[in-house]
Amino acid sequence: MGKNNYIKCALFLIIIGFLPVFVSNQYYLSVLVFAGIYAIVAIGLSMLMGYAGQISLGHAGFFAIGGYTSAILTKFHNFHPLQAMIIGIVFTVFAALLVGLPSLRLRGHYLAMATLGFGEIIYVTSGAATGLTEGPSGFSGVPSIALAGFTIKSELSKFYLVWLVALIIMILSLNIIHSRIGRALRSIHGDEIASNAMGVNVAKYKIQVFVYSAALASIAGSLYVHHMRFVSPTGFNLNKSILFLIMIMSGGMGSLWGAVIGAAIFTLLPEFLGVFNDYDILMYGAILLGMMMFLPHGLTGLTTKIIQLVLSKWKTRTQNNP
Amino acid sequence: MGLDSYIQLFFSGITIGSIYAMVALGFLIIYSSTGIINLAQGEFVMLGGLIAVTCHHTLHFPMPLTFLVTVLLVTVIGTLFEITCIHPLKNPSVLGLIMITIAASILMRGIAMFIWGKEEHGIPTFSGDKSVSVIGASVPPQVFWILGVIFTVLIILFLISKYTLIGKAMRATAADRTAAHLVGINVRKIVLLSFAVSAGLGGVAGVVLTPMTLMSFDRGTPLALKGFCATVVGGLGNPAGTVIAGLLLGLIESFVTGLVSSHYKDVIALFILIIVLFVKPSGLFSKSEEAKLKKF
Amino acid sequence: MNFLEIKGLCRNFGGLRAVCDLNAHIEAGRITAMIGPNGAGKTTAFNLVTGLLPVSTGKIFFQGKDITGLPPHKIAFLGVARTFQNIRIFSNMSVLENVMVGVHTRSCKGMFSSALRLPGVSSEEKFIRDEAFKYLEWMELAHLASMDAGNLPFGQQRILEIARALAAKPKLILLDEPAAGLNSQETNKLSKLIRNILESGVTVFLVEHDMELVMNISHDIIVLNNGFLITRGTPSEVQRNKDVITAYLGEEH
Amino acid sequence: MLVIKNLEAYYDRIQALKGITIHISKGEVVSLIGANGAGKTTTLHAISGLLKHIEGEILLDGRSIKNTAPEKIVGMGIAQSPEGRHVFAPLDVLDNLRLGAYIRSDRQETARDIEWIFELFPRLAERRNNLAGTLSGGEQQMLAFGRALMSRPKILLLDEPSTGLAPLIIKEIYSVIEQIKRDGKTILLVEQNAKLALKVSDRAYVLETGKVVLSGTSSELVQSQDIQRAYLGSSVDGFLGK
Amino acid sequence: KKTEAPKPPIKIGAIFSVTGPAAKLGGPEKNTVLMIQDQINAAGGINGQMIEVIVEDDQGVEENTINALQKLIHRDNVVAIIGPTRSGNGIAAAPICEEAKVPLVSCAATLVQLYPGKDISKSMYRYVFKTPQNDSHCARTIYADCQKKGFTKVALITGTTAFGAAGRVELQTRASDFGITIVADETYPADATDLTPILTKIKSQNPQALINWSIVAAQGLIAGQMKQIDLNCQLYQSHGFGNPAYITEAAEGVLFPAGRLLVVDDIDSSNKQYSVLKKFKNDYETKFPDEEVSTFAGHGYDALWLVVNAIKANGADRESIRTGLEATKNFVGTAGVFNMSPTDHCGLADDAFAMVTVKGGSFRLVDAVQ
Ligand SMILES: Nc1ncnc2c1ncn2[C@@H]1O[C@H](COP(=O)(O)OP(=O)(O)OP(=O)(O)O)[C@@H](O)[C@H]1O
Ligand SMILES: Nc1ncnc2c1ncn2[C@@H]1O[C@H](COP(=O)(O)OP(=O)(O)OP(=O)(O)O)[C@@H](O)[C@H]1O
Ligand SMILES: [Mg+2]
Ligand SMILES: [Mg+2]
């Protein structure tokens, strides 16, 4: 992790620390909790897609496994939320291996297609397996998350919890990205064959990063149900997987910070689009299309471009007036 | 269950299967010439149905004219989609393109909701509602229309690809645009053509389907999902394979629902998709070497 | 014990026998070239040695160890590096990062320790960077270190690929048509570079159609045709061999 | 027949050609030589209409073909065998050749031409049903060359046709070049191997960083000291220049 | 003379599925509450104080419901909330309102939303109420009709939504009370459009009646598709069918229990609800000429009026509204006559339902037609 990123992390921490001073309304905090939860998924997915170049269209499935495991175990079997979260991760890792092992050995789009199928299967099953999941209506009464004996109930404490988790995950992920493993992942993206010939165990790293991103989705899923205190299949359909993609694409592929920004924007955006009444779907589609077309490198790409432009202007000016 | 039930299930399956096949072919055509998975494909079907509704109910066009006008309009929409959203991009990534088609599909859904509202709309069947009895099963006449129209379209496409180089030119365009230019292929025309034809196919599917199942603004996505499964199962490259895969998915879905249980109906196609990916990833009807040489 | 030993190696593609009952060996500290007509199976042989293709039958030994069927990354860890006939640089990475990937086999920190920045990660990272720079300097590419590798001119991409392979500090390097697309001046520089590589202690195994280069620098030459070995010898022996002349060189050489 | 005046070409903001003037008469073989990155490929791409951002003039038989769509240029009889081969990887060899004749409509003649290509390159004939992407490098080069011939062009642009080919095949290709030259076709040849290029060509231009620095008949150029030193590889100074 | 500063309006929140798969339900609900808000304000408000209904769209997704709740409770500081539209969303919303001590009058049908953890044996939430008739009423009404007609073999087909799932449970558990055997029990997803394979399977069981229970699009298709495959048994639909959009030629003869709003013209002028229904139908159809009034519009009407009446009676703070709601007696709404109590937060009796059919292109009261 470069110096640059230490500064960014510190800045991030400061923002998290002080945001509630300005945003004290519970509603905004609650939306920001969702944003933090999605940021966790987006960081993992960005590593998988932006760095290793593997496309997943089914992360809602892992999100669901984490969510349902936490909800069921804490509500019906009196597990501690942390225990349940860990068990959720175990299940998710298992599922990720099941989907990933066969399809990651193949190239490119196979993972995208397999994960698409996987995500939908989880979604349909969560509605059909009534005995386990209470079916399509879902259930409420999922307890709040608890840490070391404290129940984290208020929106403010949830906000700090979720975003601190996001920060920790960010630091871990940045560490991975800026290491030999991160480089190996990017080399896989660049050219699998060459990467393999340079000693990179392509299959191993692909499955590792896939499992890592699935596990993050699972953690986020657990936090999601503890925040909503409710679970039902509607939160885990294909739209959710697509929303995750939108988040990392709009933030800028290949930048973990972009993933966080994208997650924040696309959690907040629908809240503001409410003013368009029935036609927010129209606005949403239009904004999305505009972003994809005119900001192919996402918002981080745009900022870098602007910074470069300003810098080069500044440079030429200083050159002209020595 | 008697023989009549099996026949009934067969017809249900083959009907919905041929719709899947049409959607799948739409995917395939755009994929073969550009490498793009156009996730807005289902929206073309939706638009086909809804435009037909307007033509028939508001403009009081007779059915044949409705059909023609609708397919034409959807074709134009598909072409415009390419011109406004896909063509202006400079160096798009595969994922970027997929996302654009997703965004476009959301936008088209929004526009359709704006125009036609949230309700289902229907148009009358092409030739009455009196079911035809086939070995004890009663088959609505619209089924024969669907099958007839779709197979006619398929045969036309087949003949074109057999007797012209267009099919190969499409694949060449996807494989290497520079080289396609250099052998004299009008790449622009091929790409536009592929969008036009897939949109047109979607439009056809929409018009013939709407009398049976009604149509509303949000019907596109589920159809696209099934069609996509069929495309992948068929091997992303083989038109005949794609059609067979579409029909097969429809039939399997129908028979599993009818004979086993309906609770997991929607995962059947996806389950088959995953199994095929794991067992024969290049698809049921495609060469595995060829799959390796594809970009996406 | 031979440095690299190929025994009865075969590889079929459907009905086509791309490499057929190939028996050959490479001696350490020498430059060995493999020549032969187009489609003779040279690249296929390289792919088999580096594990990128599974062998149909036969065995490959590297420093006495059986490496048949090992996955490519394991073979790379044993000290075999290569370049490709169609350049395969990581165009999504910078020049420096490309070479840093080359140092992959000489480092060991995994996902877990990297994520937690366990002790040793930073120093290893510094080692990787320093090593990569060393090779960039050797190849005179250091001034381009931060450039996107994909934007390099063709000739420099070839050199970058060699730098990346060398950064693995291999015992054996396989070069597949390194001179293709270079003009004669550049080719001359390349032959000097290849000799330098040898001097630094790396055994060179080379496929090339540029006969001037091959005859100038190689100690041994292996000739393939239609997947079969037709002869092996010193440059002057090979140049005089009737079969080689009819199948490959043509009359004038 | 083909005249290029003051051609400038840009990639985004990078200027790759800085005013190149070249002319080629009917039935001539003209070669372009020059170091890596000199702009040879760029020139050929400009002629084929693949570049958007060009300035200057390109005239075919007196008519400007600047800003004409690439497929139209092929239709006017200019075909190119591109650098880097660019075969259609997921299509088989036969289809690649058939697509080479995309602008033609005479099926039987096309079939005959394909047989002719197979005679020239028996290696390709053996692989006719293999996917182009699985061919060896040299086989792909033959295919790209053959594909360019399939449109029966008046002017053939060849970008490093000998790359990756065995010495025998290089001879083969050059004898084909001579043969089609005898058939009255015009050829613009780009080669790294200047010796070879100067041997077959009537005239040659030497490019350096986007400019023509030298031109003349091949026999003149072979004698030239500069050419000797820079491109015909007698002496070597320095190691790996910038 | 000192002019009094006008009091700020009383803010009432509303969450409906205005878009998304249940848009056909949420749309009329939204229209209704805004219409009634205008009517009340035009008539001078509640004791001179205006009301403001703030409508949020949850698109039928629980996550949005929860965001909307937070927004209404904490940002807009509403005194009560009406909605949501769908059962799943109701289940998600209830505990939050309970915890925040904000009265919620749900427009979703399912009874379990009134109980913590969907457990009817536990005591009811204090702050959660609902307006639609209970699922159990619906199931009982249908089965009673079957019994009357002598049907003993019945097939079930339900949508895999919260509403359908709840109905399925009701139908399964109550069949034996009426001497009915369930010969087929099938489900279909919300986006299903082709039900013929399921119907074929059902046909092979030869049921005397088929009961479909869903709010999704397929309920409008099922009658037609039954005809297509020649499945000719009596079709019952749930109270979710109460939308004129579903009246098609094929739907002729369908039976379903519904509030009397749909069949105003058929009910006796002596009926308690008569004038309320007549006026509401008239108001709605004048204001929205493209649309016919539906039971869902009625749920919106009932919910808002319940809240308004509670405010009138008890005062405009959350706690008083809650007690006011619980004390509702003899409120004549569109769904029936409401009599709430601490143990009954729905307040409707079984007779709130009447059997309705489709005849001659409109909804008719069965009793009036026969
Ligand atoms: N797509 C591109 N984008 C940006 N710059 C390019 C591009 N293609 C070529 N260039 C630059 O244009 C210049 C001329 O390149 P060109 O490929 O024409 O050279 P060349 O003479 O064919 O070289 P070579 O011997 O390597 O084939 C080079 O400096 C090169 O870096
Ligand atoms: N994946 C594959 N599938 C089918 N055939 C293949 C495959 N790879 C190589 N071949 C065939 O095997 C033969 C040997 O190919 P190879 O690439 O080893 O040749 P080469 O000696 O390197 O030739 P060149 O000098 O032209 O590069 C060729 O005829 C080629 O067509
Ligand atoms: Mg080779
Ligand atoms: Mg070039």
Q: Keywords, please?
A:
heteropentamer, D: 242 residues, alpha/beta, globular, disordered C terminus, E: 370 residues, five-stranded parallel β-sheet, 14 strands, 18% strand, binds magnesium ion
Low-confidence segments of chain A: none
In percent terms, what proportion of residues of chain E is strand?
15-25%
Distance between the termini of chain A: 35 Å
- Overall form of chain E: globular
Provide a short characterization of the protein structure:
The complex is a heteropentamer of chains A (322), B (296), C (253), D (242) and E (370). Chain D is an alpha/beta fold.
Topology:
The complex is a heteropentamer of chains A (322), B (296), C (253), D (242) and E (370).
Chain B: H1 3-34, H2 41-58, H3 63-86, H4 94-116, E1 132-134, E2 137-139, H5 141-163, H6 166-175, H7 177-182, H8 187-213, H9 220-234, H10 239-260, H11 265-279, H12 288-292
Antiparallel strand pairs in B: 1-2
Helix pairs in contact in B: 1-5, 1-6, 1-8, 1-9, 1-10, 2-3, 2-4, 2-8, 2-9, 3-8, 5-8, 6-8, 9-10, 9-11, 10-11
Chain C: E1 4-13, E2 16-26, E3 31-35, H1 42-49, E4 57-62, E5 65-66, H2 72-77, E6 80-82, H3 95-102, H4 111-116, H5 121-138, H6 154-166, E7 172-176, H7 184-199, E8 203-207, H8 211-217, E9 220-225, E10 228-233, H9 235-240, H10 242-249
Chain E: E1 10-16, H1 23-42, E2 51-57, H2 62-75, E3 80-82, H3 87-100, E4 104-106, E5 128-130, H4 135-149, E6 153-159, H5 162-174, E7 181-188, H6 196-203, E8 209-213, H7 218-228, E9 234-237, E10 255-258, H8 274-287, H9 295-314, H10 318-326, E11 331-332, E12 337-338, E13 354-359, E14 362-365, H11 366-369
Helix pairs in contact in E: 1-9, 2-3, 4-5, 9-10
The complex binds adenosine-5'-triphosphate (2 copies) and magnesium ion (2 copies).
One adenosine-5'-triphosphate (ATP) sits between chains C (13, 16, 18, 36, 38-44, 85) and D (127, 130, 134-139, 164).
